Amino acid sequence: MAATGADPSEEADGAQLRPAFASLDLLVITVITPETERILPAAEFPGLRSRMNDALLELAYDDPLNAWEDTPLLELSGPLDDRLDTVLAAL
């Protein structure tokens, strides 16, 4: 929804999300990279895919709902073969 212009703070209630995020050991986001673009199916709406990627990053780092401020965040943008080891090392 944020990728299409919706304001997350008007669409969701951070207080309702906090318990779910508090139960997580790690919040992992996987961003679109040139490597993932090569292996993903061709985007039907490439502009939307790009806007969604940007919106995900903005939401994750800005936390406009103050819902995951205490949850560690890991952005996976490196080589696909290294991602599992990266997550396990972060845990």
Element layout with pairings:
Elements: H1 8-11, H2 14-22, E1 27-30, H3 34-39, H4 46-62, E2 73-76, H5 83-90
Shape: flat
- Secondary-structure-derived class: mainly alpha
Extract low-pLDDT stretches. none
Our count of helices gives 5
Helix content: 40-55%
- Average pLDDT metric: 89
**CA-to-CA gap between the ends?**
30 Å
Strands of the widest sheet, in order across it, are 1-2
Cα-based radius of gyration, to the nearest Å: 15 Å
- Give the ordered list of helices and strands: HHEHHEH
Total number of beta strands? 2
Give the domain tally: 1
Q: What profile does the largest beta sheet have?
A: 2 strands, parallel
Strand content: 5-15%
Structure report:
With 91 residues, the chain is mainly alpha-helical. The chain has one domain (2-90). Helices cover 48% and strands 9% of the residues. It contains five helices and two strands. The protein has helices at residues 8-11, 14-22, 34-39, 46-62, 83-90; strands at residues 27-30, 73-76. The relative contact order is 0.23. The mean pLDDT is 89.
Main attributes of the structure:
91 residues; mainly alpha; two-stranded parallel ribbon; 5 helices; 9% strand; flat
Task: Produce a short descriptive summary.
By secondary structure, the chain is mainly alpha-helical. It has helices at residues 8-11, 14-22, 34-39, 46-62, 83-90, and strands at residues 27-30, 73-76.
